[in-house]
Inverse folding.
């Protein structure tokens, strides 16, 4: 059974139209991450939550926001998508934030901006 | 700051041949090291991890990696490639001190030729 679930798997949005990607987990993990992965590149961390504490990477554009209303759900909001925001967006969780704990990834949402 | 370098963005091997994917790390503290595999349009799946126990780590699907501190390396190997091993492979490093997310390498795409 899937433990980290991302919806939808594929999302098409219009240039400048706000879009929300969702992630849910059944693992009851403390930490949830959002990564952006462009074609043939490594996943790039956008931000992560440790419980309710939000940690934004320094180079994450203001256009990207996140919400974590409870332990199970986390959302990625892109306020005004540009063509350069087309990518695979990966959600991941880990039990703790320490680096020796495994990160579990969802299958990703591929975002297309038209 | 921590980083990993994956040598070779694309590796091609014949079916049944040895697979060797190279990863070198940089870390000012003892590192935790991971290999993840990503199949097309999927999330990342953990293959194996090194967290300061045995230096030779065995993972899933017949893969293993050896931590060599003197060489700052954590190369991934498999004695005999299968067609199903064709995928993108990412090396990642984490810190043994503090809550810091993983840092991924740029990835190596493995092709397996029949």
């Amino acid at each position: 059974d899937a433990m980290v679930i991302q919806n939808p798997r594929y999302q098409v949005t219009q240039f400048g139209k706000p879009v929300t990607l969702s992630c849910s987990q059944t693992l009851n993990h403390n930490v949830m991450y959002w990564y952006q992965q462009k074609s043939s590149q490594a996943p790039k961390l956008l931000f992560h939550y440790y419980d309710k504490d939000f940690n934004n990477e320094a180079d994450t554009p203001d256009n990207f926001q996140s919400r974590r209303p409870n332990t199970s759900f986390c959302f990625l909001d892109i306020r005004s998508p540009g063509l350069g925001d087309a990518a695979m967006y990966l959600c991941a969780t880990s039990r703790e934030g320490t680096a020796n704990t495994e990160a579990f990834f969802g299958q990703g949402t591929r975002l297309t901006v038209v | 700051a921590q980083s990993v370098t994956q040598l070779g963005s694309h590796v091609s091997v014949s079916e049944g041949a040895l697979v060797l994917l190279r990863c070198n790390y940089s870390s000012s503290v003892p590192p935790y090291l991971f290999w993840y595999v990503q199949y097309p349009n999927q999330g990342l799946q953990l293959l194996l991890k090194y967290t300061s126990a045995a230096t030779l780590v065995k993972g899933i699907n017949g893969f293993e990696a050896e931590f060599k501190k003197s060489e700052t390396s954590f190369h991934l190997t498999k004695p005999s490639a299968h067609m199903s091993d064709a995928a993108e492979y990412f090396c990642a490093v984490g810190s043994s001190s503090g809550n810091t997310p993983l840092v991924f390498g740029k990835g190596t795409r493995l092709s397996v030729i029949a």
About this structure: Chain A has a mean pLDDT of 92. The radius of gyration of chain A is 13 Å. The interface with chain B takes residues 4, 6, 9, 33, 40-43, 45, 48, 50, 88, 90, 92, 96-100, 102-108, 110 of chain A (CB under 8 Å).
